[in-house]
Structures are given as structure tokens and as C-alpha cells.
């Protein structure tokens, strides 16, 4: 996500457009071709290890519960829930992308300090392509589609989403674009790896989602705080180590607007206030003062003791 943010924010500041294409692979884990997987494995590991990996996958029996057929034999796809499956799928996809890099001159997968578009980012079957024009994206998508088919994977073009960021000509973010013969209407928001990417420099959806998750986490902890009659110092440390990171992790590399930061701070105060009210020996300090790290005169020894016990 840091790479995505960095690219989009730098393009925005430079006044240049950026096109984000989110791809959908139809039934990704269920469609991997075993023959293609075996051929790819043999280029990366010795034949003995490749044979043993394939023996773990071929013709194994799975058991279903909850009123379904008790057993069935599976002769296609990687196992669901198997620790090998994500790795094997990644190996197949990496081979496809490496082949794509050889065919499309603009694509460079290994980029160092200076990142040049187009960029392809993938995490398992979550793939996005960032380019500076629809022409480049069309060329990449056309070749990628062909090579995915060669390993048993199918690109679902009807579920492909596009996000357009243009700080100067904002109307282009609504214009239908043609990518590889498919008409795609740009969307305002794309969710990638749990984070929202927007057509403008706005983090409202990301902040909102994180705050909601933090509130749910806090609500689950408050009954425990009351039941154990937890001291407010311990409740504060739990907030700092569990709740606060779920809201603020990674935001130090994100360009937030003033309203985003204000809203985030407001949620922080409200959540901490609810947790402290459930604890015993409530402090005389205000919630904002506690967030800023201020302490009451009598609390320093207890703070040191609690920190030592927790760590």
C-alpha cells in the first residue's frame, strides 16, 4: 500500500493523471492448471521436490461437513486452507508476470528507488495496474489475459474496475474508457488490501473503515475491563498497543487532509474515553491530555510497573 500511495500522491502533486486498473481473476485458486504448475515448479526446484509437491495436490480426498457429501476426490485446483496453496498460486502468477515483462517493454517488475509507470502490484490474486494512459493499460491487459489462460486462469473483464486520478481535468474520472475492447466506467473508490483508493486526494473512506474496526475492537474489550475491574493505566496501555495501531498504522506515509486528521483524533478521544470509564480509579486528567502523554503526579510508579508486567 505504501507503493500505491506514493505513486498516486506524487502524480497528484505533479498535476499528472494516473489510471488504476483493478483486475479480477475468476475462481483464482480453483482454476490453476496442474500441468502448468508442474512445469513452472520444475524451473524453480529440482524434479524430486516438484514431484512431491504435486503428489500432495493430485487426487487427494477432502471431507465436507454440515450435511454435504462426506467425501469427494479433487483433480484440479490447489487445496483450500493448505499452507502451500498461496505460495503455489503466487509462483504461478509470478511466472505469468515475468513472461509479461519480457513481452511488454514498458513493464518493469523490479524497480528500486525511482518508480516508473506502468507498475503492476499483486498480493495473491489481488492485482492492480497503475499507468499514465489507457493505451499502456490495454497492451498490458491484452497480453496478461493470454498468459493467464495458458496456466488455467481467466481474467473476468466484466468485474474489472478502473479508478482515474487527474488533479487538473477531474471530469475525466467519470468518462467511460475502453480497455482491451471492454468499456469500463471509472469508479470513485477502489478497495485494495483493506484500504480505500479514491479518485481524489481524500482518505475519508479509509479513516471511516479503520475507526469502525477500532470501535468494534473496543466494544469487545470494555466488558472485560469492567469484569476484571482493570486499573485505568492498564486500560490505557491496551488502547495504545491494540486499539490505536488498528486506526493509525501506516498513516504516517499517507497524505491526510486536516479534516481527516481531526476526525481521526475525535474517534481516538471517544474510544479512549469509553475504555477509561469502564476502568477503575479513573484519572482526573482529560482524555486529550492522556493522548498527549500527560500523567498525574502519583501515576509514574504504577505506569512503570504495569509496563514491566505486560512486556
From TrEMBL:
InterPro entries: DNA/RNA_pol_sf (IPR043502), Rev_trsase/Diguanyl_cyclase (IPR043128), RT_dom (IPR000477). Residues 1-184 form the Reverse transcriptase domain. One of its GO terms (molecular function) is endonuclease activity. Keywords: Endonuclease, Hydrolase, Nuclease. It comes from the Eukaryota. It holds the Pfam family RVT_1. One of its GO terms (biological process) is DNA biosynthetic process. PANTHER family: REVERSE TRANSCRIPTASE DOMAIN-CONTAINING PROTEIN (PTHR47027), REVERSE TRANSCRIPTASE-LIKE PROTEIN WITH RNA-DIRECTED DNA POLYMERASE DOMAIN (PTHR47027:SF20). This is Retrovirus-related Pol polyprotein from type-2 retrotransposable element R2DM Endonuclease. It comes from Eumeta variegata. The gene is pol.
Amino acid at each position: 500500500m505504501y507503493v500505491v500511495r506514493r505513486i498516486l500522491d506524487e502524480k497528484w502533486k505533479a498535476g499528472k493523471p494516473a489510471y488504476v486498473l483493478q483486475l479480477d481473476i475468476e475462481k483464482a485458486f480453483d482454476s490453476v492448471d496442474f500441468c502448468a504448475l508442474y512445469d513452472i515448479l520444475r524451473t524453480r526446484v529440482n524434479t524430486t521436490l516438484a514431484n512431491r509437491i504435486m503428489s500432495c495436490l493430485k487426487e487427494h480426498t477432502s471431507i465436507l461437513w454440515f450435511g454435504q457429501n462426506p467425501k469427494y476426490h479433487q483433480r484440479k485446483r490447489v487445496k483450500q486452507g493448505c499452507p502451500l496453496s498461496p505460495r503455489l498460486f503466487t509462483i504461478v502468477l509470478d511466472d505469468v508476470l515475468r513472461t509479461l515483462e519480457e513481452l511488454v517493454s514498458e513493464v518493469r517488475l523490479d524497480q528500486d528507488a525511482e518508480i516508473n509507470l506502468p507498475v503492476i502490484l499483486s498480493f495473491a490474486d489481488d492485482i492492480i495496474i497503475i499507468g499514465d494512459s489507457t493505451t499502456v493499460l490495454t497492451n498490458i491487459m491484452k497480453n496478461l489475459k493470454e498468459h493467464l489462460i495458458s496456466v488455467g486462469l481467466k481474467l473476468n473483464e466484466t468485474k474489472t474496475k478502473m479508478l482515474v486520478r487527474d488533479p487538473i481535468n477531474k471530469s475525466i474520472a467519470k468518462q467511460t474508457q475502453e480497455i482491451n475492447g471492454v468499456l469500463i466506467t471509472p469508479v470513485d473508490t477502489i478497495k485494495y488490501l483493506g484500504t480505500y483508493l479514491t479518485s481524489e486526494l481524500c482518505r475519508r473512506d479509509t479513516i471511516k473503515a479503520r475507526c469502525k474496526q477500532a470501535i468494534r475492537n473496543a466494544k469487545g474489550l470494555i466488558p472485560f475491563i469492567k469484569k476484571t475491574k482493570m486499573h485505568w493505566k492498564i486500560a490505557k496501555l491496551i488502547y495504545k498497543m491494540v486499539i490505536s495501531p488498528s486506526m493509525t498504522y501506516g498513516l504516517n506515509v499517507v497524505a491526510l487532509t486536516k479534516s481527516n486528521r481531526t476526525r481521526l483524533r475525535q474517534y481516538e478521544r471517544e474510544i479512549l474515553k469509553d475504555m477509561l470509564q469502564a476502568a477503575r480509579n479513573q484519572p482526573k486528567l482529560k482524555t486529550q491530555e492522556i493522548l498527549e502523554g500527560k500523567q498525574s503526579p502519583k501515576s509514574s510508579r504504577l505506569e512503570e510497573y504495569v509496563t514491566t508486567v505486560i512486556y
